[in-house]
Amino acid sequence: MTDIVTVTDLVKRYDNGFEALKGVNLGIREGEILALLGPNGAGKTTLISATCGIVRPTSGTITVGGHDVVRDARAARKLIGLVPQEVALDGFETVMNVCRFTRGLFGKPQDDAYIESVLTQLSLWDKRDSRTMALSGGMKRRVLIAKALSHQPRVLFLDEPTAGVDVELRKGMWETVAQLKAEGVTIILTTHYIEEAEAIADRVGVIARGEILLVEEKDRLMSQMGRKELRITLARPVQTVPEALTRYDLEIGPDGTLVYRYDATGQATGITQLLSELKGVGLTMTDLSTHQSSLEEIFVGLVHDKETEDRQAEAAQ
Fold it and tell me: In this protein, which residues make up the domain named ABC transporter (predicted)?
């Protein structure tokens, strides 16, 4: 699968010396959904803004569909749809006219049939003649998506598209995202709802302090970095780990349970031996359950490690 967006050694440094992006390298494959995760201030919006031509990079290059976003800005921008965090719409215009106008800005001929299909897909067709000021917050966010799709882009950036949107509407938006992917649109989204990224993304990128920490297939990331926990409920809860079991990675969990952490991808988990040794120390098991590390836990761990590393580097200077 070829890359439709290529980011190479991208640096964005502001006049006050703050470096929002520090040599970012990223390839986004045509037709994929890439979830870009990171804490506030990590550089997600700056990266999107640079790719969309809103922010000019200090150094490095970005190409979209082979077009450099600085040297060939018009051609690159025609391939991109952007749904920003902020809801910015002309409150006096109708939903239909907002989409028509945006389509015209990109040099596309009027095509009300296409716009009708987009509005229908987003459950907005019955609001086509409504002024945007009269719409709810969730409806306005749908209009932003319709506006971004009006010129039939090949790449769609969704910057926190479901912020402040109720659960039902959020679910509808992700169904729309899945449909767009089926139609061949490449989608890059940032979200604080990590469970959504876990549900719909093909790959996950993690950015912190202006650096890409990781870009990986979601399923491979879960299998490589996710760890499992075996939670052992005992007939008689314990307060400490028995001396004979200290060689295992055990902790005392809620209600005196034993929690055993292990690598789910390893050939030998050690579970069978651990369970047999429980009897030898006089413990009786009444129940077992397992817990797989979530994407959120992996993400938090990566960001924490990066922040710790940076603090140590700063202290050593």
Answer: 5-234
